[in-house]
Amino acid sequence: LADGDGNIAYIPMKGDVGLMPDSTDGFFSADDFNRAIKSGIDAGVDTFILGIDTDGGRLDTAIRCQEIILRQIHRDCRFFALVEQRAISAGALIALGCEHWFVTPEARVGASVTWAEVEGVPTSLQKQYLDDPDLLAKRMAYLMALTNECCLIHGRDPSLGQAMTSMEPELWWAPGHGFSEERHAAAAEKLDNDRT
Fold first, then answer.
1. Alpha helices in 6-110 (DSSP H)
2. Strand partners, 48
3. Spatial distance between the Cα atoms of 165 and 146, rounded to a whole number of angstroms
4. How far is CA 177 from CA 36, 80, 151, 185, in A?
5. Phi-psi region of 126 (alpha: psi -120 to 50; beta: other; left: phi over 0)
6. CB atoms closer than 10 angstroms to residue 72
7. Do residues 140 and 85 lie in contact, with contact meaning Cβ atoms separated by under 8 Å?
8. Residue 150's pLDDT is what?
């Protein structure tokens, strides 16, 4: 950020995204996030740095946080994701809504697998709807549309969001070339499940 970029606020987003049955390291809710943003705007803040450090959590909470970010971007607020350790699953979806990311070399972002609890056991939607591919496709279509919208608003290749939310695509990164589903340069690095 350069001098004269307006008033800046830091919002820590640590612990579970939404209240989870086994939340032990704390959690943050979409209501808490919305209150923090509104309080900042009321104080004249126009740039928010989100200190994201989470292994994930509730999809509905992540989507509400994304919607809050996108609504404020349309009102000329700026959002930066600061990831020092991890923005996994629902945390990656929140980061995807931000205009810019600052990620340390040891940080991990991605692995947004949608899951639900079935008979007390966490199960991915892919496994839960194995016998109903149409319902799975419908549920995933909404998530993919949301990630694509976030990518397009910020001028990112939608394949970045797709790689974070789907098990199928491979994604490559090369300096000067950016992200691609194909290897375009000898220096390209494949982003595997630990890196996306």
1. 30-42, 59-73, 90-96
2. 9, 79
3. 11
4. 37, 22, 17, 8
5. alpha
6. 20
7. no
8. 80
Q: How many helices (H) and strands (E) does the chain have?
A: 6, 12
**pLDDT, tens only, 70-123:** 999 888 899 999 998 988 888 988 998 999 889 888 888 876 666 555 566 555
Structure tokens at 149: 């919208």
Q: Please give the span between the terminal C-alpha atoms of the chain, in angstroms, as a whole number.
A: 25
Q: Answer whether residue 20 shows pLDDT above 90.
A: no
What stretches of the chain adopt beta strand conformation (E)? 7-14, 16-17, 27-28, 45-54, 78-88, 100-103, 108-110, 115-118, 121-124, 171-174, 178-180, 189-191
The C-alpha angle 150, 156, 158, rounded to 5 degrees, equals 70
Tokens read off for 33: 């996030």
Contact criterion met (CB below 8 Å) for 26 and 55: no
Alpha-carbon distance 131 to 147, whole Å?
25
Write out pLDDT tens, residues 147-188.
Answer: 778 878 888 877 777 777 665 555 555 566 555 666 655 555
**Nearest by Cα to 99 from 53, 153, 148:** 153
